[in-house]
Amino acid sequence: MANEKENNKANETVMAHIYQLDGRVPIGAAVPFGLQHILAMFVANIAPIVIVAGVCGFSTAEVAKLIQSAMIIAGIGTLIQLFPIWRVGSGLPIVMGISFTFVNVFCYLGPVYGYETIMGAVLVGGIIEGILGLFAKYWMRIITPIVSASVVTAIGFSLLPVGAASFGGGNGASDFGSVKNWILGSITLFVCLVFHILAKGFLKQLSVLTGLFVGYIIAIPMGMVDFSGILSGGVIAPPRIFPYHYEFNIKAILAVTSIFLVSATETIGDTSALVNAGLGRDVTREEIQGSLACDGFISALSSLFGCLPITSFSQNVGLVAMTKVVNRIAIATGAVIMILAGFFPVLGNLLATLPSAVLGGCTIMMFGNIVVSGVQMIGNCGFSQRNITILAISLGIGIGFTQMPELFSIFPKIVQNIFAENCVAVVFILAILLNLVLPKEAVSDKREK
After folding, report:
1. CA angle 94–98–103, rounded 5-degree value
2. SS3 for the chain, per residue?
3. Which residues, other chains included, contact 57 with Cβ-Cβ below 8 Å and sequence gap of 6+?
4. pTM flag (> 0.85)
5. What range does the domain containing 347 cover?
6. pLDDT tens by residue, 256-274
7. How many Cα neighbours within 13 Å face the side chain of 213?
8. Does any domain span residue 397?
9. What confidence category does residue 298 fall into, taking pLDDT thresholds of 50, 70 and 90?
């Protein structure tokens, strides 16, 4: 009985600490939470690499090398976010990964100017974003709570189709929406929900990992897991430094830098959402500053590995919003796993066998939590007529117009690449403009409490 009481007391201590930013959590207890974060973002981390490398005509071996670098740089970026170096890093449980935001512009620049030009633009654009991040306190005044709430809500809505696409088997899959994918995605979602309801203590927060594991096991006899490529790339392989030389093209640099500014808006929204949902408070300027600086400078570092820019991952913000697990040690174990996956290709290849439908079953709930976080932030701002106007126009145009990208066909190609399908960027710009233009003395709505 005494031993049982001691074990229960130890479990209660762990449970309390995983909800604390700097709580002391044993490595053995931290690993499952870190692994859960990696599985939630792994496919999204490598997908941009596969897409851009494909349009640039890279071989399968070359793509594998880039995926290896992507895991290492994502792990390094996450560790610096968790444990800042000088003013670079937020000190928050933000998981970093290869950004999807740049895919359109890279798919345009790659075939025209070459991958070396992309690398030169990433180096310059990353440094510019990093410097802007360091001086964020001078321009952050325009990012008011209602602007942040609008962006967070837009991020949540923009991710819902991503979760749905994964549920169906992944964009472009030959069996998209098949019975198998429906069954596998539904089982995974059901397991996540049931485990979250029935589990006790800190184990309740491992519902996503449990769903991923059960879904994966079920997918094997269904013939939906391909183990053929696990040993490709060998067991151990060091990363490559400077695999490509830099070429600097002013048009490419301007295009990519503009996308870095769009990515910065997403990082501001992600950071605000994470702090609000995970820590129950408003984000500080110092945290935004460090988060943006990490986004930019680590993206520049990524180019040294021949890799694409990295950014904060919204799916992991959703995971924090759902589980409330914010412990830095727990998230850091996931970052270490990513780095090891980069040095041990067999580990990365094994994680890559996770079926999209399994991931989709888990992410539906996670992404929905981001939407809820955005709505909660809106509620905290109050429903004045001014706030309602900002939300109605920015979300209405941002989400509505980007569902019909043909509306942007009258604009130059670079504008289409930035805004046509990026509702977060449109919402951010409109929310800022409206916040600056609308009079502060706008009459409050009668429904405001």
Report:
1. 135
2. CHHHHHHHHHHHHHHHHCCCCCCCCCHHHHHHHHHHHHHHHHHHHHHHHHHHHHHCCCCHHHHHHHHHHHHHHHHHHHHHHHCCECCECCCCCCCEEECCCCHHHHHHHHHHHCHHHHHHHHHHHHHHHHHHHHCHHHCHHHCCHHHHHHHHHHHHHHHHHHHHHHHCCCCCCCCCCCHHHHHHHHHHHHHHHHHHHHCCHHHHHHHHHHHHHHHHHHHCCCCCCCCCCCCCCCCCCCCCCCCCCCCCCHHHHHHHHHHHHHHHHHHHHHHHHHHHHHHCCCCCHHHHHHHHHHHHHHHHHHHHCCCCCEEECHHHHHHHHHHCCCCHHHHHHHHHHHHHHHHCHHHHHHHCCCCHHHHHHHHHHHHHHHHHHHHHHHHHHCCCHHHHHHHHHHHHHHHHHCCCHHHHCCCCHHHHHHHCCCHHHHHHHHHHHHHHHCCCCCCCCCCCC
3. none
4. no
5. 18-369
6. 887 788 788 778 888 988 8
7. 9
8. no
9. very high
Per-residue pLDDT averaged across 135-156, rounded?
A: 82
**In the chain, how many domains are there?**
1
Model confidence pLDDT, tens digit, residues 7-37:
555 555 556 678 888 878 888 878 888 888 8
In a domain, residue 311? The reply is: yes
Identify whether 422 is part of a domain: no
* CA R_g for the chain: 21
Backbone angles phi, psi at 32, to 5 degrees: -60, -35
User: What is the sign of the dihedral through the CA atoms of 186, 190, 193 and 195?
Assistant: negative
Does residue 425 lie in a domain region?
no
The per-residue b/e assignment along 43-78, b for 16 or more CB within 10 angstroms, e otherwise, is: bbbbbbbebbbeebebeeeebbbbbbbbbbbbbbbb
Q: Do 365 and 205 meet the contact criterion of CB atoms below 8 Å apart?
A: no
